[in-house]
């Protein structure tokens, strides 16, 4: 291959790589900006706007290098709100969106690290080294936001703001705002796992009874409906008892903390100060925060309980919400494999039930990506494979039991 041809081919690859970097940085800019506009926490929104500005700066560096290498000014082809309008970001809440961004930042760091070794363009490598350091800082800042620590911008650096931390703590105690996104994600997760539990259990029952009775609709319907009712009641009562027990344990632990504070208030203040220092607050700032809280014994109790128990009253599940969500979602999942047997019987009903159950398995698996960080197709196929194995095994067992009883 002639030298000029090789150079042109290599240049096209470099330009394509830089354009991909530019597109990614612009998507990050639009995502951070959209999330900042929607965030009700002023301090967190400020941090997100700072991150958006940094992404825009990175995009400008890539655009400049593309033009220097003879390429065209890149044009953004993504969503005007970046990834902030995705179903997962909207359904999972602000906390889930930040968690996904944290993962995206780690992937960008890894991708840029690979480019350092493979790109072979000195000007681009200099930009990469600068951008990688910034992306590492972004990763740390997102992690801090997810752990509930506020940041304020001082010049070009971020520093912990004790006043912001105190306001955030009081807001969490009074309004539960920082936990709202996680509770929404938890509710969605409970519903998804309820559907999955009902679908998996009753699909197994339907498959087994179908194998034993050659798809006799009467027996499959009876077993399926009985299993659906039992599963829904079991899931609902189990969720209610679990949430109620969790709340009772929390209240008992808070009562012990109250007694400990009354017996030795100075030790309680020192303990809370140490918790804040471990999180990064200087000793003087931590003590000021603690002394402020100590002015109200109830605030001190709540703050210390939150640190000691790693949760708050607002973060606990409501037993009746958990019970209702668990029972209804389990019933919805459980009825799916039974539906065909209302209208048909025999092998046709068995095949139809298997097809719609596997489709439902895929849908439930894909829906799990709303509350996890896995891709929807990988989660969907995993759930489908599990359902297929479960159905095949229980159907085979049913055939064997049917022959034994014949």
Task: Offer a quick outline of the entry.
The protein has 406 residues and is an all-alpha fold.
Tag the structure with descriptive keywords.
single chain; 406 residues; mainly alpha; Ferritin; two-stranded antiparallel ribbon; 13 helices; 2 strands; 80% helix; flat
Describe this structure in words.
This protein is mainly alpha-helical and 406 residues long. The protein folds into 2 domains: 3-148, Up-down Bundle (Ferritin), CATH 1.20.1260.10; 175-405, no CATH class. Helices cover 80% and strands 2% of the residues. It has 13 helices and 2 strands, in the order ααααββααααααααα. Strand 1 (151-154) and strand 2 (157-160) form a beta hairpin.
Write the layout of secondary structure elements.
Blueprint: H1 3-38, H2 42-68, H3 87-118, H4 122-146, E1 151-154, E2 157-160, H5 162-175, H6 177-213, H7 217-263, H8 265-278, H9 283-294, H10 297-309, H11 319-335, H12 346-367, H13 376-405
Antiparallel strand pairs: 1-2
- List low-confidence stretches: 150-166, 168-185
- Helix/strand/pairing class, anyone? mainly alpha
Q: Domains counted in the coordinates: how many?
A: 2
Write the element-wise H/E pattern from the N-terminal end onward. Answer: HHHHEEHHHHHHHHH
How many whole angstroms does the radius of gyration measure? 28 Å
End-to-end separation:
75 Å
Question: What is the share of helical residues?
Answer: over 70%
Q: Helical stretch count?
A: 13
Oligomerization status of the protein chains: single chain
| Sheet with most strands: strand arrangement | 1-2
């Amino acid at each position: 291959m002639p030298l000029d041809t090789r150079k042109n081919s290599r240049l096209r690859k470099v330009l394509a790589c830089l354009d991909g970097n530019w597109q990614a940085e612009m998507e990050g800019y639009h995502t951070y900006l959209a999330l900042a506009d929607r965030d009700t926490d002023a301090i967190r929104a400020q941090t997100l706007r700072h991150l958006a500005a940094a992404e825009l700066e990175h995009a400008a560096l890539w655009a400049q290098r593309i033009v220097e290498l003879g390429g065209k000014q890149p044009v953004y082809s993504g969503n005007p709100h970046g990834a902030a309008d995705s179903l997962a970001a909207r359904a999972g809440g602000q906390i889930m969106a930040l968690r996904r961004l944290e993962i995206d930042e780690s992937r960008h760091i890894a991708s840029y690290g690979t480019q350092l070794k493979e790109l072979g363009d000195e000007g681009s490598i200099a930009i990469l080294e600068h951008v990688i350091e910034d992306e590492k800082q972004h990763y740390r800042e997102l992690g801090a936001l997810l752990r509930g620590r506020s940041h304020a911008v001082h010049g070009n650096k971020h520093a912990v703001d004790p006043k912001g931390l105190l306001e955030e703590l009081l807001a969490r105690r009074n309004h539960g705002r920082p936990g709202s996104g996680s509770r929404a994600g938890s509710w969605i997760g409970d519903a998804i796992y309820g559907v999955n539990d009902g679908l998996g259990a009753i699909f197994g029952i339907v498959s087994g009874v179908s194998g034993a009775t050659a798809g006799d609709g009467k027996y499959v319907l009876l077993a399926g409906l009985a299993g659906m009712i039992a599963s829904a009641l079991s899931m609902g009562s189990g969720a209610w008892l679990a949430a109620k027990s969790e709340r009772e344990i929390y209240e008992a632990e808070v009562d012990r903390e109250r007694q400990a504070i009354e017996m030795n208030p100075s030790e309680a203040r020192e303990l809370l100060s140490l918790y804040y220092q471990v999180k990064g607050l200087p000793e003087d700032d931590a003590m000021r925060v603690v002394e402020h809280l100590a002015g109200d014994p109830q605030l001190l109790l709540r703050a210390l309980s939150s640190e000691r128990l790693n949760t708050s009253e607002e973060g606990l599940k409501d037993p009746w919400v958990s019970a209702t969500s668990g029972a209804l979602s389990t019933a919805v999942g459980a009825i799916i494999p039974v539906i065909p047997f209302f209208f048909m019987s025999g092998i046709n009903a068995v095949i139809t039930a298997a097809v719609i159950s596997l489709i439902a398995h895929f849908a439930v698996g894909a829906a799990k990506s709303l509350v996890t960080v896995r891709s929807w197709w990988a989660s969907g196929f995993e759930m489908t494979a599990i359902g297929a194995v479960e159905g095949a095994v229980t159907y085979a067992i049913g055939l064997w039991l049917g022959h034994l009883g014949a």
